[in-house]
Batch of 2 targets.
Target 1
Amino acid sequence: MILKVENLEASYGYLKILHGINLEVKIGDLVAIVGPNGSGKSTTIKTIFGLIKPDNGRVIFKDKSITNKKPYEIVRYGIAYVPQGRIVFQTMTVEENLEMGAYTVKDNRIVKQRINEIYNFFPILKEKRHQRATFLSGGQQQMLSIGRALMLKPELILMDEPSLGLAPKTMLEIFEKIKDINKKGVTVILVEQNAHMALKICNKAYVL
Ligand code: ADP
Ligand code: MG
């Protein structure tokens, strides 16, 4: 088991959103969490990543509790997070965005090497390396957002609705890439409103 979530509860103010979530994720899994808009998918993933403090429950990563840890600490355990809405640094170039993803890596040669790996994986990002992120298409921004998360070579990646607002063809491309990332050995938790596609590529699913 790489991640275990036990009885997780979370609220916004007095409004309880998560009423005891339980998840079990094995190494190498591609787990989908599906559910309608407003069902608490983003809240679940944010609570796992430490962006929201749980009221109750535990998050266990490889037998260690990461409950109540801060995102910057959780990143060091080998967990990466791709937020909903393909948030990238709009005024920075593609390459600068990728460099930002490796902020904990001090050796510049390693950073360069990892950027090249991302360019091999997403060739379009290499082509656009010196362009500001704001000039990228939605699909390209999503690739950049995923690429940035991959810069720290995570063991587990949490993705929040990577297909949201993309054209069908681009969406398929992104789902193919998510499968490839998983095949390379990265465990994936994929939160999706697009249940049809998510259920197609996952090996296990939870419905909220
Ligand atoms: P999903 O990702 O499945 O669409 P969310 O986890 O974003 O759902 O939201 C779950 C519920 O929490 C929704 O009812 C939403 O309105 C509410 N919610 C989300 N974010 C906030 C917030 N920052 N403050 C108050 N309520 C929120
Ligand atoms: Mg959401």
Note: The CA atoms of residues 90 and 134 lie 5 Å apart.
Target 2
Amino acid sequence: MLIRQRRGWDLPESAVTPEHATLGRRRAVGLAIGGLAFGGVGRARADAAPTARRYDPDRPLTEEKFATTYNNYYEFSTDKDLWRAAQRLPQHPWTLRIEGKVRAPRTIALEDLLKQVALEERIYRHRCVEAWAMTVPWTGFPLAALVKLADPTPEARYVVFETLTDAKHMPGLAMLWYPWPYIEGVTIAEATNELAFIATGLYGKPLPPQNGGPIRLVLPWKYGFKSAKAIVKVTFAETRPATFWEAIQPAEYGFWANVNPMIPHPRWSQASERLLGSDERVPTRLYNGYAEQVAGLYAGKTAEKLFM
Ligand code: MTE
């Protein structure tokens, strides 16, 4: 017998507000073309179309225009209005290198990867370390599916993400004081947690370049800087990687970076957050409200700075 377990990010259809319903219809149209659209690659299996809709139970969706025009992407600029410059970033062809402690290192074209996973939509809250937040519908697949596909050996303890350095299209790379490329990483346990997600779409459309298109990481219980954009390499490692922001300022941006309203950033409070597109501030939640799914990952890690 098939027993459907309701997960923390699911919302029954009956609880969907009219606001969501409008957006949901628009997304449904986008999702119908999703087989063609995601990854911007022209072809994908029909059954690779998104299989499920996930709804955030607690907050209205951020309007698309705010999520796609207020971005952090230092490879382009330290300003938030980099979206215009990002439009020039080629999205196709795109390949992903998988290496390190895996049985068969390989380079895989994004369209071939998308044929091997089932796409779904998830509405997640996103909390930037700078204390702004949004709630957006990502399309993509669980990071666990990529880990499975990569077939890591038992020595693999971390999954490390390296992102694109394309100096021709990314003017921010000229800021040579930053330790390019942008590197992020998680433990294998975090990578295979049900929430960890690889996004290739946003609002039912291909992931815009300014949001990390064509492929990015989404870790909704961590500060946004962990969710690396424009991934080109995934390495399975025995040792903890030196991540981009940790290399810049370890006291402010640590490896774990789990959201916690009680632990202030050294220069500002993390107790509340501003919802993108408004001046409204709302209380920040432990693990960004996803404690039920992820708190168990950190049991016993008392010596670690889990929230910095
Ligand atoms: N990925 C890369 N490659 N470069 C970046 O500068 N910024 C991070 C993260 N991923 C960043 C990145 C930060 S600080 C945040 S908050 C999110 O992307 C922002 O994602 P968004 O612009 O889609 O909201």
Note: Residues 71-75, 128, 163, 182, 211-212, 224-225, 227-230 surround MTE (CB under 6 Å).
